[in-house]
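Hi,

I'm pasting everything inline rather than attaching a file, because the server keeps stripping attachments. The sequence lines come first, and each chain or strand is labelled.
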Amino acid sequence: MACFLIPTTEAIVTTILQRVLSSKEKNMEIHHEGDSSENLPKSGFSRKLKWLNNMLWGGSALLALEHVWHGEVVPWFPFLTAASDSSSRSEMFHEMATVGVTMALLVTAVWVGMVVVSSRLEKKADKPVEEKN
Amino acid sequence: MTLLISIFAAIIATIAWYKNAPKDDWKIGTLALMYWGASLMWMCDAIFEYAEAKEEFFQPAVADMLNDTFLGFTVIALGLLIWLAVLLIKDPKGVIKNALKKNENEN
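And the predicted assembly:
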């Protein structure tokens, strides 16, 4: 019905967050120019947040097509066929609260897993260099 | 069927990304993440559908399956279109930039 709206909302929030973090990281790089590169983050968090953005935006866009295909999203107001009457509206909100929220949580959980694994791999890759020093 | 097709697309895109990693001149990583995002979302949808329909979930009508297959391939095409737009806008190899510069110099 409109479950894809929950991941889309999350995508909007994470995209804004990623833009803010990215500009902060760039400022830090300029600030540390000339210093030793030890203070710089090995792989910026904004880059990792971009993975989540890609998953959320891509998934939402493809799911939106499915909803258009099934006639649940239309190009005229109120754009969602389920929003036209109150009984289907409550059904739509129920679906958003269950399926939509689960979708957003699952994608975020997979992303958290990806971040944890990549951070461990980065630490492992750094260890031999530290031991040599 | 849509879920299966998107999972296969995600696996193929991930293999293509891994083959060229750490280089990502073609932005295949973005395509793979897009397909994985869609696959995870459809997986949720499938779990909720299974909880409602139980065994019937695994016995879809032929017409429904055909429609879902058609939808699956349309979804893959849309994913490829988005990826192509991202690739041309970001232009990681600088092909478009160089072509525009060349045109400016010729004029």
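The interface with chain A takes residues 2, 6, 29-30, 33-45, 47-48, 71, 74-75, 78-79, 82 of chain B (CB under 8 Å).

If the labels don't parse on your end, tell me and I'll reformat.
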